[in-house]
Amino acid sequence: MLFEPRGAQIEALCALENARAEGAVKGLVQAATGVGKTYLAAFDSRRYKRVLFVAHREEILKQAAVSFRNVRHSDEYGFFDGKMKCTDKPVIFASVATLGSRQYLNERYFSPDYFQYIVVDEFHHAVTDQYRQIVDYFKPEFLLGLTATPERMDGRSIYEICDYNVPYEISLKEAINKGMLVPFHYYGIFDDTDYSSLHVVRGRYDEKELNRTYIGNAHRHELIYKYYCKYGSRRALGFCCSREHAEEMAREFSLRGIPAAAVYSGEQGKYALERSSSIQKLNEGTLRVVFSVDMFNEGVDIASLDMVMFLRPTESPVVFLQQLGRGLRTFRGKRYLTVLDFIGNYEKAGRVRFYLTGQFATAGSMAGMPSVVEYPDDCLVDFDMRLMDLFEQIEKKKRRVQDLLRDEYFRIKELLGHRPTRLELFTYMDADLYQMVISRANNNPFKRYLEYLRDLNELTTEEMELFNTIGREFIGVIEKTNMSKVYKMPVLMAFYNKGQMRMALTEEELLVSWKEFFGNGTNWKDLDRSLTHEEYQAIPDRDHVKKIMQMPVHFLQESGKGFFIKKEGYALALRDELETVIRDPDFVAHVKDVIDYRTMDYYQRRYVEQR
After folding, report:
1. Which listed site, 78, 108, 163, 290, has its alpha carbon 20 to 30 Å from 413?
2. Radius of gyration over alpha carbons of the chain, in Å?
């Protein structure tokens, strides 16, 4: 069989080639489940000799190995995991848990430049420490991230790892409209289970409390069974909150004459089956329903599924789309996927309206229903009218932005185990809340972070001393300075000077920082959108210096509240009084944090505008 790229893969390959021609050394492809991202990676990496494919599940690695073998027509590949430590094959498929260990990230196994091309599958996991260690250690010619999921995973931004460089993306809506996936018939079912007294811990409902709510709840069992029978299914997958929940649902369905099993990790119960065995039995028809706990969210495909059931609160667009995507693959005779979503008065219930569009709500858009045209073609979305009343009640109960922000700050602090920096608060903050916060000048802590920390009694003794100096005022200036363009960033980076702050900068020092910034990946595009890469590379140093002096240097002197001054023999200098604080480690740390945050915030805004 001849394996060649098709449809969206061809579009993505062209986009990746163009991105590399423009200087990109890393990029993210975001495509709905079923588009063929693994084959895309195999096609794109064909001309590279040494390739690393990284994933967190054994099944994903094995499936990827088959795809790469089919494309490269070669059995020259090996695995680097708990069992094998292959280091001498052109293509290596590596387990994150193994390769991400510091004992293997060294010259004894692989030098940093050993791999020319690296693929990180399920890229939304790349925010975890082991993934980051791999990504930070290796220096490939190109790094490709693959994900089906949007925006954020458990409150962490995946785009920062690839500097918001997304050469290609195809949404769930586009994939369905183009016939790559089947449409869905979604039924939002009113579930009178009361979640109001349950606690949310780190963004998720407490599993033990959910268990107490679900286990033995005969009324809810009957509700789920009734709607399962109403819409009918030959092969269904139900998503549960815990092993006990999955076991009980399998038992309840089995007792009602529907062959069912539970699939989860850890100690196995009476109705438990191994994942591979459950898939086989589903396909054979000897099993009708599998109740799962975090075992089918990603990396495993059951194209024949005709129903998915959401039996626990939807707390993340990422998890919602992963679970929905399990059933959207095309299969002979399958016209659509039935989705049964049992919705109660849990915290984020109303957001599901927007998850189904494949688009994600921004501040102020979380009210009402999306119009029919916002959903993919041939899809049916039907909410029980009682849910519309519930969504309206949830909207009315929304608290003040200041209170939401305070709770989010302490949630992130607990998650990290330390006080969050500006960049960490930006990275982990709920995306909708972030948009609300930055749209309200008075509630925006990113423009007054030291003051915000003081108000929360979060400043250290040393920082309180800094607070009462001219250093706080300077930090406030760089927090607030206009950044509609990014020209000021390399100038601020030059003053920061990798932690050894300077009081004055020569033209030569500014030029080094300027070229280092705009020469990184595709940042050169932000210098002048009309430029080609070749034209950027041909710009002489004198023209760069001219632009530096006319743009950021001029505007910092004009709007920098007297902190940026002219000085004999230098292109730009800081006010003499800052000499008293530039060696203060807290001052330096806050200056760096402002620069890091503002850089990533700029990249995010640029990405949103380009979309």
Report:
1. 163
2. 27
In angstroms, the first-to-last Cα distance of the chain is 37
Same-domain check for residues 337 and 474: no
Same domain as 409, residue 379: no
47 within 8 A of 142, measured Cβ to Cβ: no
Write the secondary structure of 373-431 as one string of H (helix), E (strand) and C (coil).
Answer: HHCCCCCEEEECHHHHHHHHHHHHCCCCHHHHHHHHHHHHHHHHCCCCCHHHHHHHCCH
Helix (H, G, I), strand (E, B) or coil at 186: strand
Is 548 part of any domain? yes
At 504, which helix (H) or strand (E)? strand 504-505
Is residue 364 located within the same domain as residue 420?
A: no
Amino acid at 114: Y
pTM: 0.77
Does residue 163 form part of some domain? yes
pLDDT tens for 39-91 read 999 999 999 999 999 998 888 899 999 999 999 999 999 999 989 999 999 99
Task: Write the burial class of residue 319 (CB in 10 Å: 0-12 exposed, 13-18 middle, 19+ buried).
Answer: buried
Say if residue 95 is in the same domain as residue 105: yes
The rounded distance, in Å, linking the Cα atoms of 267 and 262 is 12
* 8 Å CB contact between 539 and 27: no
